[in-house]
Amino acid sequence: MPDKINKTYDVAIIGSGPAGLSASIYASRYRLSNIVIGEMLGGSISDAHRVCNYPGFIDTPGIDLSQNFLKQAEHLGGEFSQELVTKILKKDNLFLLETESQNTYYSKTIILTLGSSRNKLGLPNEDFFLGKGVSYCATCDAMFFREKRVAVVGGSNAATMSASMLSDIASEVYIIYRGTELRGDQVWIEDVKEKSNIKIIYSTTVVSLEGGSKLERIKLSNRYNNSEYLEIDGLFIEIGSVPNADLAQQIGVKLDRENYIVVSEDQSTSLEGIWAAGDCTNSSNKFSQVVTAASEGAIAANSIFAFIKKKTV
After folding, report:
1. Is residue 24 situated within a structural domain?
2. Residue 214 pLDDT greater than 80, yes or no
3. Which residues is 97 bridged to in the sheet?
4. Total number of domains in the chain
């Protein structure tokens, strides 16, 4: 825990995933004192079984990648506190941050890197099979299912895009959708319907996940091919995600209709002195990837450097 007595940071970074750690790395290189505050140092990428689409790494465990980010940020001088920020107040031209642990921090500027939360099916064993057949990101994990049987849960663009990509890698792809017609862009709907190795199962939900050390089958709410079970190697849950925007909403930062933080090209928000980066923003075409989060964090730190320098001239 850093010494917070009588110390004011140039930048307080709320959230400790790739966006926050990248922001810390760049802030330190600009000689801006900074602290990263988050419940999980390394962020949710630490839960990823493998990451194979981050430049410079052919294939690496998510925990290793996040820890490399953390070590680099720490090496350059960033400070860290593993706790939850619950309130942000403006006091004497500074931001006062209060945490669940009843600690307080002062900072000249803030970067919100709050991330997002994937919608889950809410089934028993769902967390157990994460990284053992269950995935929430086809872009991240598709390559681990080459020539295997997989299923995608969902019926909107996220599901059809994932199914289309998986069809070029897996031997068989099933789309399981509770509705009677796929939703979203017609180009993706037509694409999955034209693929010979994609089968669509309508008016059906997944009611249980089964297997031993890894996922082996799913139980369906309706019978398919005279069976209530579907034997698969992987299940991609593509039923959307929600930005973690409660704190942003509390302080009055502008959000879009889907509750993403609205940012300008320099990652600044609607409130002076507050920037945002990563999955919680409407930036990067809402393409939630490690590489886009890291780039947005870097941009935010660069923008704050220019902001502080202008204030001191």
Report:
1. yes
2. yes
3. 88, 105
4. 2
